[in-house]
Amino acid sequence: GHITAETLMSILRDKDSGICVDAEGFRTAGSMVSVLPRDPALPCVHFFTATPDPSRSVFKPFVFVAGIKPVPQVRSPTFPQDPAKQIPRFQSSVDRRHELYRRHQAALELMEQDRERGQKLLETLQELEKQGLEGMKELLE
Question: Name one GO molecular function term (predicted).
Fold first, then answer.
C-alpha cells in the first residue's frame, strides 16, 4: 500500500508491538521519520521528536539547509566548569537536559497527574504535528 509519514509515526508510537517502550526503567529515546522525495529538486523533510516516548511526543518538521542555526531550546546547555572536562572527571554532575526536554518532562507529569488537562495538552500537540505534516505536503507539491 501507501506508506506515509503518518503511518511511520503511528508505527513508532505502537506500544503493543514493543517498538515504543515506556516500562521497566526504559523509555524510547527520540524518534525520527524522514520523507525523501524522488524528485532531487525537492527538499527532504525530517520529523524529529527530540523528546522521549513518541506516543506522548510531537514530531517536529525540519529541513536541512546551508547555514542552519540550531534553536536554543534543543541544545544541551554548556558549563564553564564542565565536570566532563575537568580532571578528575565527573566529580560532580550538572543538568544537561535541553529546554524542550525539560518542558516535555513537565508535560508528561501533567498527563499523569491531571488526565483531563493532560489529554487537552496531547490534543494540542497532535494538532501542531498535523500542521507540520500539512506544511510538508504543501512544500512538496
Answer: dipeptidase activity
Residue 54: exposed, middle, or buried by beta-carbon count in 10 A (0-12, 13-18, 19+)?
buried
pLDDT tens across the length of the chain (141 residues): 689 999 999 999 998 888 888 777 787 878 999 999 999 999 999 999 888 888 888 999 999 888 888 788 888 888 888 888 888 888 888 988 888 888 888 888 888 899 899 889 889 989 999 999 999 999 998
Handedness of CA 118, 119, 124, 128 (dihedral sign): positive
H or E element at residue 13: none
Question: What residue ranges do the domains of the chain occupy?
Answer: 5-139
Angle, vertex CA 116, rays to CA 110 and CA 117, nearest 5: 45
**Full-model pTM:** 0.79
Buried b (16+ CB within 10 A) or exposed e, 26-48: eebeebebebeeeeeeebebbbb
CA 63 to mean position of chain CA atoms: 15
